[in-house]
Amino acid sequence: MSHHNHLEEPLSEQSLSSLSLTHVEFNPKDPLSYTYAYITLSPLIILISYVSIIVARRELMMINMFFGQLFCEMLNFGLKKWIKEKRPNDKLGSGYGMPSSHAQFISYFATFASIYLYYKITFHNNSRKFPIILGLIIFSCLVSYSRVYLIYHTTKQVIVGNIFGLTFAIFWYILLEKIIRPLGIFKIIIESRLARYFYIRDNSSVKDIVKIEYMNWLTLIGEKEGQKTD
Fold first, then answer.
1. In this protein, which residues make up the domain named Phosphatidic acid phosphatase type 2/haloperoxidase (predicted)?
2. How many whole angstroms separate alpha carbon 202 and alpha carbon 188?
């Protein structure tokens, strides 16, 4: 992250271009600008979290959600090439600005996570879902607004990005849970030799999975403690 411009230096007869995923320009004299500069990097952190959680938990839902995120990004790339609307400041960011990829990314993430949490995950006390969903909504709004505050996008570009991200998340959830799952495709995937080899699982129909996993952990710890005393 930086608040100065990249300098291109000649190498032989060619110039080098900058490719930095964490390069965000902001006003160093504005504390709020500094905060939003970190907030706007959230999609990169989420991508790393996707991969980490998939590797650690081998959960089919997370894999499906991740693929949806990638398809949503592909959609955004196509829309930008088709609409070809410039950013409010040509010196900030690269490529076209309509719709905002950050806004579309975070809107998909927050919407799909909220829908899946509400309909597919059960807690002992389901009222716990609502603070999580509210947090996702607030987080999505902060990331989206950061793009306007830092002058990387216009308000319209961010709103359109949010609309496409939200719409695609709803579409992806319906496709997965209302069309693909009833066809038994996920069951075939889970029972495949490849899925068994990589320990891929589907806990979408397991009620109170958080409590069950915790109780299993307590049982495992108890067994280990029992082995030590034998």
1. 60-173
2. 11
